[in-house]
Write a structure and sequence with these properties.
This is Lipoprotein. By secondary structure, this protein is an all-beta fold. Helix content is 1%, strand content 39%. The strands form 13 sheets. Strands 3, 5, 7, 8 and 9 form a five-stranded mixed sheet that branches. The longest helix has 4 residues. It is elongated. It starts with 22 loop residues before the first strand and ends in a 7-residue tail after the last strand.
């Protein structure tokens, strides 16, 4: 079984074949005289092997998010040997860029790994028998998404004169699967499921997000910018399953020879949307300092900062002592008398004054303030035919006025005839929030974008210069997400450090440590994911966190014992199978094996030290780290601009002795000095009960903020093949915080 042997010539008198696996081969012969077939005659060939042979399936095609099972248990010993004496050795040689996949075990016939990235994985299997080793067997695993995400390309950057029409070009977008693309262009970043954003256009533009982009649903829309400055257009492409986004800047310049356009003085910004009429409150709280500099603009791209503005009083209530506004570039005042305060603003662009613009503030106790709109979606992904729900119940009013909810279906897929329906919500205090929720029965695959505004009982709305939107992606088919969470020390989550990549009874946490649980969730369709962590079990009296809804979950292991956490991941349509992690926790004195401890972080700059915030361990202080003194810091985001950076660690041995093997340090940077590992040597034995401090030292001539560099410190533990230390710093891949 598993042999690929074939006869060289099935119609020949003397065919050959290659016995690629040991075992019994049988060839069957039939001859024909032109009239009839002869009887069958068989020949048996027994292929023996002097060496063990690694046997496994050599090619897999899987979805990302799949746990791949590799089975080498069909390997055979030398002819006549005992299969139970085979020694297996699996390794992962190649991984897709960015993958952190690792084999669950390496010394057994069966092993597995989690395909976390799309691409090709290469596993190597060798089997040993006594002193003999098989030839390596290469196993190729190709992981892919259920659908390849399209690539959006908005083109650009673009340059156009004000008043001229620009045609944007998204024809560089592509889909590796050859699926047809649909196009959507926006003037606001559409990257989120629900968000408050602003249109990416200069102040003063009269274009709104509804009318700025002509033919916004094609690859080549057009726009005619009306104000000089920086604009940004966003492109979203959809291949029927997944969406991809891109953006392009538009530099709008002043036409050559254009006459100066006087600036415009205004207290309120031009609206970014047109589906409702914005209304501001001019009431201000009595006795409170009011700041209001306005939103003046210049269509030529000049002005309108504080040096361009001037203010003067028109009228104030009797009894108010007018604050002098002479020379003020920003307007503020403190109304201490009830009544109307009218002020005038004029702006200048260096050539011309604007027309004056007045505003009247009404000061009173309990002044009406503008409401705030807030929007959430029930699920960012639904199946076509399901109802997508948008929820505005978290909108609020500082004065607790009842709110009117103003909804609009801003965008929907090609061919859709969907319309909004509305639903009331009863709040905790019994108030009925009329039309606080909006729903859409999705009828086409693609994105449905809904916007919300709110208006209070005085007619005041939330600011019309912001957009509050929600987006739901409807799909015709769905592949559920999968997860394979891991647990490790919280301080180890940036780099892949030994040994906390999987807690078990030989590698527990120690009381007082933070456990960091990473979801490793994958969605084959690349959908947005939702997380639910629940603490199922913990020692009696523990105050560890009970639940979480983020991609990761952290809790303090405050008491010894067993902690059990379950993760379920949803893409909005389907959920993953529950995955439970068990994290054992012990006290330091009961740690059952070799323990890695991250120490204070120490660095030396120009041979001198600053104020010490911690003590260097005595044996580390005598190490040849660098000339001069040292400064120690608790683990921190503070790093030097130059000089040697040192990371400190300690190993404590329990339940046996441990030997350092395969110690290696690599340095790749523009300097002349080498990275060093100080305090450990090849073959060094850490005795039971002994603690050994060691340090990872960057080159002193390495500028950690500015220089590129690739440094790696590695060693293994002879007695535990599953223990390894691998600290890798590459500024391009793992930038410092």
């Amino acid at each position: 079984m598993g042999s690929a042997a074939e006869l060289s010539d099935e119609a020949g008198a003397q065919p050959t074949f290659t016995a690629d696996l040991p075992g019994t081969y049988e060839a069957d012969l039939v001859v024909n005289d032109g009239t009839a077939d002869s009887g069958h005659d068989a020949v048996t060939i027994i292929a023996t092997n002097p060496d063990p042979v690694a046997i496994a399936e050599t090619e897999y095609h899987v979805l990302i998010g799949t746990t791949v099972m590799l089975d080498g248990s069909g390997s055979v010993p030398p002819t006549g040997g005992d299969t139970t004496q085979l020694v297996y050795n699996w390794s992962l040689q190649d991984l897709p860029t960015g993958s952190t996949a690792a084999l669950a075990q390496t010394g057994t016939g069966l092993t597995s790994f989690y395909a976390d990235m799309a691409g090709t994985y290469t596993a190597i299997l060798t089997v040993g028998y006594q002193e003999k080793i098989s030839a390596p067997l290469t196993v190729t695993i190709i992981a892919s998404t259920a659908n390849t995400k399209p690539v959006a390309d908005a083109g650009g950057p673009y340059t156009i004169e004000r008043g001229q029409t620009l045609t944007l070009d998204g024809n560089g977008s592509s889909d590796a699967d050859g699926n047809p693309l649909t196009y959507r262009w926006y003037l606001f970043p559409p990257s989120y499921t629900a968000r408050e954003v602003t249109a990416q256009k200069p102040a003063g533009s009269l274009l709104t997000v509804e009318n700025a982009l002509v033919d916004y649903d094609t690859a080549t829309p057009s726009i005619t910018p009306d104000v000089v400055g920086k604009w940004t257009a966003y492109l979203v492409v959809h291949d029927g399953v997944s969406i991809s986004e891109s953006s392009a800047t538009i530099d709008v310049t002043l036409p050559d020879g254009a006459e100066n356009t006087p600036p415009v003085a205004t207290w309120f910004g031009e609206p970014h949307v047109s589906f409702y009429e914005g209304s501001y409150s001019n009431e201000v709280e009595l006795g409170t300092t009011i700041w209001a500099s306005g939103n003046s603009y210049d269509a030529d791209g000049g002005c309108c900062g504080s040096s361009n503005r001037r203010y003067s009083w028109i009228s104030t209530p009797e009894g108010y002592v007018q604050e002098d506004q002479t020379g003020k570039g920003s307007f503020w005042f403190t109304p201490d008398v009830p009544g109307a305060y009218t002020v005038e603003m004029i702006v200048n662009d260096g050539e011309d004054d604007s027309a004056p613009k007045q505003r009247t503030f009404t000061a009173r106790t309990g002044a009406n303030e503008a409401p705030r709109a807030a929007l959430a979606v029930d699920s960012g992904t639904v199946l076509v035919g399901d109802t997508a729900w948008f929820d505005g119940r978290d909108s609020s009013d500082p004065n607790d006025d009842p709110l009117e909810y103003i909804w609009t279906l801003f965008d929907k897929p090609d061919g859709s005839s969907a319309k909004l329906t509305f639903q009331n919500v009863t709040s905790d205090d019994g108030a009925v929030l009329v039309n606080a929720r909006a729903g859409i029965v999705t009828d086409q695959p693609g994105a449905y974008v809904v916007m919300l505004a709110v208006r209070d009982s005085h007619g005041v709305t939330n600011r019309p210069t912001t957009l509050i939107y929600g987006k739901v992606l409807a799909k015709s088919e769905n592949n559920p997400p999968e997860t394979n969470p891991t647990a490790r020390l919280a301080t180890n989550r940036i780099n892949p450090l030994y040994p906390y990549l999987g807690m078990d009874e030989t590698q527990p946490l120690v009381t007082g440590q933070q456990a960091y649980l990473a979801s490793n969730a994958i969605d084959p369709d690349l959908d947005a994911l939702y997380y639910l962590w629940t603490m199922d079990k913990k020692p009696e009296g523990s105050t560890a966190t009970e639940a979480g809804d983020r991609e990761y979950f952290m809790f303090l292991a405050d008491l010894p014992g067993t902690y059990q956490v379950t993760l379920v991941v949803s893409d909005g349509v389907a959920t993953s199978e529950p995955y439970t992690l068990t994290i054992p926790v012990v006290t330091p004195e009961n740690y059952p094996t070799l323990r890695l401890i991250q120490g204070d972080q120490s660095y030396i700059v120009d041979g001198s030290s600053g104020s010490s915030q911690g003590a260097v361990p005595p044996d580390l202080a005598t190490m040849d780290i660098d000339q001069g003194g040292s400064m120690t810091l608790p683990y921190s985001n503070t790093f030097p601009d130059s000089g040697a950076l040192t990371r400190l660690w300690a190993l404590t041995a329990s339940k046996g002795d441990y030997t350092i093997v395969d110690l290696n340090v690599t340095t790749e940077h523009g300097g002349t000095e080498q990275a060093r590992l100080v305090g450990l040597t090849e073959g060094q034995v850490i005795k039971e009960g002994e603690t050994v401090n060691f340090a990872l030292v960057y080159p002193a001539d390495f500028n950690i903020r500015e220089s590129g560099g690739d440094f790696r410190w590695q060693f293994k533990i002879k007695e535990r093949e599953d223990f390894f230390f691998d600290f890798h710093y590459d500024k391009e891949q793992v930038p410092l915080p």
